[in-house]
Design brief:
Blueprint: H1 5-10, H2 22-27, H3 34-47, E1 49-58, E2 64-75, E3 81-90, H4 92-128, H5 132-146, H6 150-162, H7 166-171
Antiparallel strand pairs: 1-2, 2-3
Helix pairs in contact: 4-5, 4-6, 5-6
């Protein structure tokens, strides 16, 4: 087995530090990812072809890395696979950035709708004589039953209140 400098680096190693073998490669796979990886290798080595997957490795420092691996097994004229080649790309940082962005957007989205939800709760509290948790529960129940996002239910109630029709909308709750 031959590894590029980048392959050694992904595993937290320097070229020449170890002799790359299939066993070494597999020893760094996350335990939960070993079976799918072995199944892919087995399939490719039997019949040739290409395969790819996103999986985890554990580098020599014990850090979990997310990697994308692509493999190609090339059969000889006899049909027997005599060569396999591939590459591995560390996508850990890219996935971390995407996850952070998604979390930020979710938090911002929640705060963006907080005002209208609070207004709708206030309308329910005033018209139904209930406490804040009960008012929120009414909004949430309506949201679930109508399969509509909570902030949209709240906006509908606030808009109805502006037009003097809040009681009518509340009868649908």
């Amino acid at each position: 087995m031959k590894w590029s400098d980048g392959m050694f680096g992904i595993h937290g190693l320097r070229p020449g530090e170890v002799v790359p073998t299939f066993e070494l490669l597999m020893s760094h796979k996350h335990p939960q990812d070993r079976e799918p990886i072995l199944a892919l290798w087995k399939n490719l080595l039997q019949s040739g072809g290409q395969g790819a997957l996103l999986h985890r490795i554990i580098d020599v420092r014990g850090r979990e890395r997310r990697v994308f691996s692509a493999l190609q097994a090339v059969p000889a004229a006899s049909g027997r696979v005599e060569q396999a080649r591939g590459f591995m790309v560390d996508v850990t940082q890219s996935l971390r950035i995407e996850s952070q962005q998604a979390a930020t957007e979710a938090i911002e989205g929640a705060y963006a709708h907080k005002a209208v939800i609070e207004q709708a709760k206030g309308i329910i509290m005033a018209l139904q004589g209930v406490e804040p948790p009960a008012a929120f529960e009414m909004l949430a129940t309506r949201s679930q039953h109508a399969n509509v996002k909570l902030h949209i239910v709240a906006e509908e109630l606030v808009n109805a209140a502006v037009n003097g029709k809040a009681r009518e909308v509340l009868t649908g709750f």
